[in-house]
Every structure is written in structure tokens, then in C-alpha cells.
Design a protein that fits this description.
By secondary structure, the protein is of the alpha/beta class. It has two domains: 124 residues, Rossmann fold, CATH 3.40.50.2300; 95 residues, Orthogonal Bundle (Arc Repressor Mutant, subunit A). Helix content is 40%, strand content 21%. The protein has eight helices and eleven strands. Helix 6 crosses helix 7, helix 6 crosses helix 8 and helix 7 packs across helix 8. The structure holds calcium ion (CA). Calcium ion (CA) binds next to loops.
């Protein structure tokens, strides 16, 4: 699951650290927020692929964080797994009403959490939950960082790899340069929009090294898409 970014929102430091360690072992990229306010800031800075959200949090409650995630168009479909204490059993239903994709009652095993994380990712974005994704004749392996096209290995730089990894999760969908910038470089980094064109150019060249056809479509004044061959 390398390349999958998870935000843990939990004020109990020991639990947050334990989850960070165990998800990290599964090759997830993990960030921690200790309260609801910090969570919303971090989500704004860099949208995670999934949020693990504690119900009882200082400043802004988990339920409110979830509500705000659901109310913004950019984060509306962000998967959320809610953590609740057993005494909050009755609140679970409300949690699901607010739009959490799943919930876990404390205490839970980390294996159970990881299984739920994978299940939610698989359901929501099939391409994300797997270490290997194949679209047409292109196969990307997120663990070994290898790309193969029609049995030939393709060598990509780290930025081109991340670009391809992003495009391959949504075959056929057109991404604007700004969307690609945010997804690949992060919204907190200053990079010129034109830089995207340069790296798309390199990615294109690498993918077509063996003259198998250019899989990247340029949509004039809109952006780029990866087409399934
Ligand atoms: Ca808590």
C-alpha cells in the first residue's frame, strides 16, 4: 500500500503512535493530528487517501470533523473510519449518519483496523488498495516501484512514478495541471504549473520507449488523462 496516505486523528498519544507504527509497517504513509482543528488543517494542506478519526477529540469533535469533510466538495468522498469507545455505542448510528464509511469500537486489534482500512479503500478506490495496479498493458508495483509495459520494464524518475501512480488510479479521468500539482507535489510546495507539462512529457517518453503507443491523452486547456489500452 505504498503511496497511500493515511491521517490518524487521535488525542491519545500512545494509541496514535501504535497505529502509526503498525500502518507504517504495512507501507502506508502516515500523519497524525492530535485534535480536530489540527486534523482539518492537515486535510487542507494535503488531502489524505483515508482518515482514521477518533470520536472524542479536543477542540473540534470527531463527528464535527467528519461533517466538515463531507460538506466540502474536494473532500466529500474521502474515506473516514471512526473510532468510538464502547460507552458511546448509541452514538455509533449517529457516526454512520454523519457519513463515516466504517467504525471501530475501542479497544480493537491493529490487525482488525488494517483489515478495515484495506476493505474501505478497496470499496472506494479499487486502484488504491492494491500494491499492484494494471491498466491496459501498463502495470505499476507500488512496493518495488517497478513499472512494466507489455513485459518490458520502464524506468521512471520518482516524480514520473508518482504522476503515473495518480493517473492510473482513475483511468480515463481528466486531471487539470493544478490537480496533478496538488496530488503529486503537494499543495504547500511552490511549483510552476508548467512543471507538470515537463514531467508529463518525460512520463510519456518513458512509457512509449518501445513504441507501444502513447497512453496519455492531452485535453486542450483541461489537462491530462491516462487511457486504458
Ligand atoms: Ca479521544
Amino acid at each position: 500500500m505504498a503511496g497511500t496516505h493515511i491521517l490518524i486523528v487521535e488525542d491519545e498519544e500512545a494509541l496514535a503512535t501504535l497505529l502509526e507504527y503498525n500502518l507504517g509497517k504495512e507501507s502506508f504513509e502516515v500523519a497524525i493530528a492530535g485534535d480536530g482543528e489540527e486534523a482539518l488543517l492537515k486535510i487542507d494542506e494535503r488531502a489524505p487517501d483515508l482518515v482514521i478519526l477518533d470520536w472524542m477529540l479536543p477542540k473540534i469533535s470527531g463527528i464535527e470533523v467528519c461533517r466538515r469533510i463531507r460538506s466540502k466538495p474536494e473532500t466529500r468522498n474521502m474515506p473516514v473510519i471512526m473510532l468510538t469507545a464502547r460507552s458511546e455505542e448509541a452514538d455509533r448510528i449517529r457516526g454512520l449518519d454523519t457519513g463515516a464509511d466504517d467504525y471501530l469500537t475501542k479497544p480493537f486489534s491493529t490487525n482488525e483496523l488494517i483489515a478495515r482500512v484495506r476493505a474501505v479503500l478497496r470499496r472506494i478506490r479499487p486502484g488504491l488498495a492494491e500494491d499492484k495496479v494494471t491498466v491496459g498493458d501498463i502495470e505499476i508495483d507500488r512496493v518495488s516501484h517497478r513499472v512494466v509495459r507489455g513485459e518490458k520494464e520502464i524506468h521512471l524518475g520518482p516524480t514520473e512514478f508518482r504522476l503515473l501512480d495518480h493517473l492510473i488510479q482513475h483511468p480515463g479521468r481528466v486531471f487539470s495541471r493544478e490537480q496533478l500539482l496538488n496530488a503529486v507535489w503537494g499543495s504547500d510546495v511552490f511549483v510552476e504549473v508548467r512543471t507538470v507539462d515537463v514531467h508529463i512529457g518525460r512520463l510519456r517518453k518513458a512509457l512509449n520507449k518501445y513504441k507501444q503507443g502513447d497512453p496519455i491523452r492531452t485535453v486542450r486547456s483541461a489537462g491530462y488523462a491516462l487511457d486504458a489500452g
